[in-house]
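haha ok so turns out i had the wrong file open the whole time. this is the CORRECT one, sorry everyone. sequence first:
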Amino acid sequence: MRKHKKLIVTVTLVCVLLLVVGGSLSAFLLGGGGAEIDLAYSQSPGEVIIQVESGGGPPPLWEDYIPEFRLFGDGTVIKRDPQTNKVFMLQGKMGPADVENLLKQIKDAGFFDLQAHYGNDQIYDGSYTVITVRVASGQKQVLVYMTQVAAFANVHEAITSAPLSGLVDYLPPEGYLMVQPYRGGDVAVLEPGTEAYAALPDMAALLAADYRTPVPVSGNNFLELKKFEGQQKYIGMVVHTGTGDLEVFPVYVPRTIAVGYN
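then structure:
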């Protein structure tokens, strides 16, 4: 996860830049003008070829900054599960011909001719989507904030609906738990003796956590907790302690990791 931290956090910095100054992105990004685009791409498993990020509004403690979709050079895809309103990631694979076809769809939809930023800057705390594509000709990044852009929407649909093979639950190298005192409400209780409860870290680590200190857990334990959360009505879970109840939220990429202010 940390290997790709730079690209993951781009949206936070780009949103601040674009929504404040309303300007264009750095000069190294591809522009429009009908220039010929070379769609060749790096096939390195560590290179992100296509990425989709979305979010907006005042971020709650449990905000997850993992991108909605990432396609790596070797064809690996990590994408959000469209069947749930919670953040749960899946992993699949695209062959070289499928990747080439998707890049062609993106080009034919006019993505490389779009502006860097579309939005209604009179609306604050709205939602945004950013699509980034890296090919031999360079990088193109487009941010859409609180408005509709037909070509952008078509590209988003093509990316997120691209067929994948071997789809499984995404197992990250590690995940994080955000912790706060229980505030009340109908949140599922994580009971001792269950597999999910066994995936929790030491209780002392949970008690010491706050909004600036997410608790890291192994990928396997994190996935166990995400599966438990996915079966519940609401996000998060309640953990009983000897000194009061805690709410625990499993998060792939918490804010403190995403923007690096810790």
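The two ends are 17 Å apart (CA to CA).
again sry for the mixup
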